[in-house]
């Protein structure tokens, strides 16, 4: 079934000049870019986007990082796109992510891990409404 996923190409990816490479992997896979916008997360959006993590020990530095500069907010669509994109980005920790995944190939960090993607249909629905309310 065709679905949509909300993907954030994080500030580390933009500042490292990896935006093109990461978008290229998604395009090469055959996923469709339905929306794409450079945005800088503010504190309020960070708290809403990461509501389930507010209060965790890793949240303050995560928030600092995610609001530190522009990121690319992307809506991708395709057959089973939510699971397909999760597989393409790999495990959260770039040091442990499998080679061949975006994080496995390009990140060495548990926090600055280049990409966020919706992890379920429910989170996709919530995150798409948060980032692209008009879509
Ligand atoms: P993301 O997929 O955006 O979801 C939550 C983010 O928190 C995660 O990617 C990482 O950037 C960050 N994160 C998760 N766990 C940790 C951790 N243990 N230490 C530091 N950052 C983390």
Polypeptide structure, described:
There is one protein chain. With 135 residues, the chain is an alpha+beta fold. The chain has a single domain (2-131), classed as Nucleoside diphosphate kinase-like domain (Alpha-Beta Plaits, 2-Layer Sandwich). The chain has helices at 11-15, 19-29, 43-49, 59-66, 81-89, 102-106, 121-131; strands spanning 2-9, 32-39, 71-79, 115-117. Strands 2-3-1-4 form a 4-stranded antiparallel sheet. It is globular, with a radius of gyration of 14 Å. The model has no long low-confidence stretch (mean pLDDT 98). It binds adenosine-3',5'-cyclic-monophosphate (CMP). The site of adenosine-3',5'-cyclic-monophosphate (CMP) has 8 residues, from loops.
């Amino acid at each position: 079934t065709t679905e949509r996923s909300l993907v954030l190409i994080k500030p580390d990816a933009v500042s490292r000049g990896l935006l093109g490479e990461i978008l290229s992997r998604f395009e090469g896979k055959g996923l469709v870019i339905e929306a794409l916008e450079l945005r800088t997360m503010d504190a309020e959006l960070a708290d809403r986007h990461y509501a389930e993590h507010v209060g965790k020990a890793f949240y303050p530095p995560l928030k600092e990082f995610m609001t530190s500069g522009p990121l690319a907010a992307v809506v991708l669509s395709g057959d089973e796109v939510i699971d397909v994109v999760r597989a393409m980005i790999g495990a959260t920790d770039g040091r442990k992510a499998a080679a061949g995944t975006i994080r496995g190939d390009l990140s060495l960090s548990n926090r600055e891990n280049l990409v966020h993607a919706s992890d379920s249909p429910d989170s996709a629905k919530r995150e798409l409404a948060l980032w692209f309310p008009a879509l």
